[in-house]
Here is the input.
Amino acid sequence: MVILREHSDAPLRPNDPALYERLADEWWSPRGSFAMLHWLAAARAELVPPATRQGAVLVDLGCGGGLMAPHVRGKGYHHIGVDTSPSAIRQAADHGVLAVRGDVTALPLRDGCADVVAAGEILEHVEDLPRAVAEACRLLRPDGLLVLDTLADTALCRALAIGVAERVPKMAPRGVHDPELLVDRIELARECARHGVRLQVRGVRPSLRGVAAWLARRRETVPMVPISSTAVLFQGRGRRTAGGSPGATRAAAHPGHVGRAAAEG
Ligand SMILES: C[S@@+](CC[C@H](N)C(=O)[O-])C[C@H]1O[C@@H](n2cnc3c(N)ncnc32)[C@H](O)[C@@H]1O
Here is the structure.
């Protein structure tokens, strides 16, 4: 496969989409710039149950190179991916994803088309979080499932996920995150609730033993483990009820609800 590269070495602004063209040939390298995305894709897929009906659809927002594909294959979904990066969607397609070019804030898909919407490591890249959440929820069928992982808008997250991780080779590409776009957990839960999804969240981090084994090249991937704090990296999961309700919005906006480690069983 020929990948069209963005050849300039000019510095990029934080969260510049051109970064994904520069790093296009690293998507599927388990030790490349996107290594941690492989670990997160596996953890995200664990939140997705097997499909319960013929023709079930999983929509993968900001699908990148399609790293979730091997982990959801066999669960019975048509896997549709949406991404703005031309090189990423080509690679997602090569891995069995029906990949379309599009923006997660204006999705080219019809209302209620999805049994599952996955938003992995995408919400911290969008400028209009409410719009992206509204679009994700719009795609869900009644009782459809939203799964996500993203980075929290906290000083600790800025220090670890940007200050440290972007300086350690292969942890995260330099400049991939704009600190202004980290996700406010209260706002995220409130927006989900507005659209009928009561989000439950839990913090996750890479297993330290797993990282040690990965660094020593004894294994190619690292398990993510749940933790009580959602202050850095967290997963969310929630089903869409028939419609949002003011009560659900108020409950989700309460800090105690969002901070609790409680992934739906
Ligand atoms: C950090 S990567 C995550 C990729 C994938 N979800 C994963 O976890 O492997 C972010 C992806 O989102 C895409 N992206 C960023 N902004 C987007 C937008 N507004 N609409 C659609 N895709 C977007 C990028 O091109 C990139 O592929």
